[in-house]
From TrEMBL:
<dbReference type="GO" id="GO:0016740">
    <property type="term" value="F:transferase activity"/>
</dbReference>
<dbReference type="InterPro" id="IPR005490">
    <property type="entry name" value="LD_TPept_cat_dom"/>
</dbReference>
<dbReference type="Pfam" id="PF03734">
    <property type="entry name" value="YkuD"/>
</dbReference>
<protein>
    <recommendedName>
        <fullName>L,D-TPase catalytic domain-containing protein</fullName>
    </recommendedName>
</protein>
<feature type="domain" description="L,D-TPase catalytic">
    <location>
        <begin position="78"/>
        <end position="234"/>
    </location>
</feature>
Amino acid sequence: MAPHCNHMIRTKILSIIIAFTFSVIALQTFAQVPDNARQLITATAPSWDSHRAVLRCWERSGPNAPWQPAVANNSGWPVLLGRKGMAWGRGVFTPTRPDIPWKVENDGKAPAGIFELGRIYGEQPQLPQGSAWPYLQIGRWDAWVDNPKLREYNQHVRVNPNNVPPWFESQRMRLGDSAYKWLVEIRHNSNPIAAGYGSAIFFHVRRGPDRPSSGCTTMEVGNLERMIRWLRVDKQPYYVLLPQSEYDKLRQSWRLP
């Protein structure tokens, strides 16, 4: 092999190593649970490829106060993730590590990272008693768009029944499905929205103890309703989803429980 080829290969390898190193430093330095958070939901899985995780709820009294277990679930609740595990999501902080793929549409993976929570959607007239969270009762004319080619991608849309767009039937929110009794929006790829990087990510009811999702975090209905009752807007809750090894590595820099 010519000397200049060896030099080019060494240079390329070095650039990859440098990019990886700076990405890890950035991941640890700039990402953290925001100061305004007083409630935190964490879920940790055995590996990036796992579709099972343990979810815990936490509270704190201030930005420098320690996180304390909430709603008597310090032992955690079992949850299911995407059938193909996890990939980095686009949340409060968008990681750029080259060794871990990003969440994309139809990859069967749950987005990992730090996320805000959005509105809750459901068919019921109101949330479980004791809840205090923004809620929208959905019906026949509600859609959540998962087609990256549409400008409404990854958004809730309530269409005018007198002017129904041609894409509506394929994007309509499913009614009469017990797994979608409550849909708590996990704000992945929402600010800004990037076409093709994943849509319609929620907490919702699991379909069974052994049936992973396409990318959502799912759990037993009773636990989901306990979590919904616990959420409070003024406590600025966030959701952190990570493999356990990544969680342990980032615990201090991300200020995790």
